[in-house]
C-alpha cells in the first residue's frame, strides 16, 4: 500500500532535510560494497529503472514504468577521432559551475506503523541521476529557465556545441535522420504537453546520449508521429550536444528526483564529474513522487530480500536494513542483517521502491 502525503506536510520535511536532521532511519555500514558488487550500467548488463514522462496522466500521476539500460562505458576516443570531431563542432555555451546538493538523508514521514510492518518513505522516481524530466518542466514553467539553463543545471561543467546533422541515428534497430529519431524520442519521453524549453533540453540530452554510445542505442524508445510542437522544439536545437573534457557527456536522464538529483557514484559506483548531486527546488511542491509512503509486512520484506540475495535473515527485523547514506540522502549501500552489503539502488529495486532515496520505520 502506498500513501502520498499532502504538500502541506512536505514543507516541514523540506526544512528537516535542509537541516540535516539526525532523526532518521539510517545506520553506519562498516564496509562499502566493492566495484565487483556495484551496479554495472552497461547496455548489455544490469537494468536500471526509469519512468517515462509519457507514462504519466494529465495530473502527473504515474501510470506505468519501463526498464532502460544506460551505458557507463569509458569515454575513450582516439586523437584522430577527437580532432575530426573538433572540426565538425562549434561551441555555443559552457557551464562554469559544479553542482552540489547535500540536503541530508531522507526523513521518514510514515505515520503509525503496526507490529510486523515496515513503512518506507521515498523521494523521486527512477535512478535520479542527470536530468530530471519533471524537474526540467518545473524549472521551465515556474522558474523561467531556458533549455541551456536547464542543461547546465543538471549537467554542471559541460559545454554545449553545435554539430553537423547530415548523418543518421539508430535506435532499437530503426535508422533515420537526426530530426526524425530525436523527435520520436522526445515525444515518447515527454509527450507533447511539457514546456517547450524542457523538450529542447530533453532533445539535447537524448541526442548526446546516443552519440556517446556511438550513434546507436537499444535502450531508448521511439514514438511515431510526433506533433508539430515537438518537432519544432527539436528542430530549434537540432545537432546540439553536451561535451565534457572534449568528449560527449553521458547525459542520462529520468522521470523525477527527490528534491535533488543523485550522484552517479552513489547509484552506480562510477563517479562522473558532471553527474553530481544538484538541487531540484520545485520537487517538494509539485512532484507526485516526493514523500510517498509504502507499507509492507515483515514477511514480504523477508521474502523479497531472501529471494534476491540468497541469505537467511535473523528474527530481528530492525537489524535487516542498515543504510549508508550518500549525497543528498540517496542510499549508496545497504548492509543486510550484518551478513551482506549491497548497492542501494539495486536494493530499492528489490523492495519495489521508486528510488534509492528512502528511509524506513520498522514496527
SSE layout:
Elements: E1 2-4, H1 7-19, E2 48-50, E3 66-68, H2 79-87, E4 89-94, E5 117-125, E6 131-132, H3 133-142, H4 147-154, E7 159-163, E8 168-171, E9 174-177, H5 178-190, H6 196-212, E10 216-217, H7 228-236, E11 240-244, E12 247-248, E13 253-254, E14 256-257, H8 264-268, H9 283-286, E15 290-297, H10 298-309, E16 321-325, E17 331-336, E18 340-343, H11 344-350, E19 358-362
Parallel strand pairs: 6-13, 8-10
Antiparallel strand pairs: 1-15, 2-3, 4-7, 5-14, 5-15, 5-19, 7-11, 8-9, 11-12, 16-17, 17-18
Helix pairs in contact: 3-6, 4-6, 5-6, 5-7, 6-7
Defining traits:
single chain, 363 residues, alpha+beta, five-stranded antiparallel β-sheet, four-stranded antiparallel β-sheet, 19 strands
Describe this structure in words.
The protein is of the alpha+beta class. It has helices at residues 7-19, 79-87, 133-142, 147-154, 178-190, 196-212, 228-236, 264-268, 283-286, 298-309, 344-350, and strands at 2-4, 48-50, 66-68, 89-94, 117-125, 131-132, 159-163, 168-171, 174-177, 216-217, 240-244, 247-248, 253-254, 256-257, 290-297, 321-325, 331-336, 340-343, 358-362. Helix 3 (133-142) packs antiparallel against helix 6, helix 4 (147-154) crosses helix 6 and helix 6 crosses helix 7.
